[in-house]
Amino acid sequence: MTKNLERGLVQIYCGHGKGKTTAAFGQALRLVGHRRKCLIVQFLKGSTYSGELWAAERLAPFLEVIQVGRGCPYAGPIKAGLRECTGCGTCFEEREEDRDLALLGWEEAKAALGSGEYQLVVLDELGYALSRGYIEEREFLAVLAQRKAGVEVVLTGRDFPQEVLAAADLVTKMEPLKHPYDRGQKARWGIEY
């Protein structure tokens, strides 16, 4: 078994359906199971109560997660040491500080893509950071093209620019056909977070 991938590809999980981050973490788990290193940078997310973060702590040093977001200041009461998300939606309301946080995450991502330390770099919710102009598309594409050989990249999010979609080797669109949220079901601990 080789230590690095011969040629790292670019995968995108996009669309308005559920499962983009879940697919990215699944890809990370598979790679880490082969004792390879993965970095996940989560743009616009800052939640300490998400189950995948607890799991990632136990998979260190093979799996690292960096969150660069505000989190949900309106989370519900603490239950069994974890907070239950109320599904208020304020986590996704745009605020001025989001750009600065996204740029901090982008600096981490650029370093990881250029270092060769990680065989997989996941940029979770990058589509939103790009479409909002927090990260400059042209710069992103240049860094992506110049990453170290053998580094696989997984991008998730909504509303990716067409040029970024064109640069990818694999694009999967998550499309909602039916969702319990539409009937008033809030996000559930252990399933949605």
Concise description?
The protein is an alpha/beta fold and 193 residues long. It has helices at residues 20-32, 51-58, 97-115, 126-131, 137-145, 162-167; strands at residues 10-15, 38-43, 63-68, 78-79, 82-83, 120-124, 152-157, 170-174. The strands form two sheets. A six-stranded parallel sheet has the order 3-2-6-7-1-8, sandwiched between helices. A two-stranded antiparallel ribbon has the order 4-5.
Note down, in words, how this protein is organized.
β4 and β5 (82-83) form a beta hairpin. The protein has a six-stranded parallel beta sheet with strand order 3-2-6-7-1-8, sandwiched between helices. It is built from six helices and eight strands, in the order βαβαβββαβααβαβ. The longest helix has 19 residues, at 97-115. The termini are far apart. The chain has one domain (10-183): Rossmann fold, CATH 3.40.50. It has 193 residues and is an alpha/beta fold. Helices cover 32% and strands 20% of the residues.
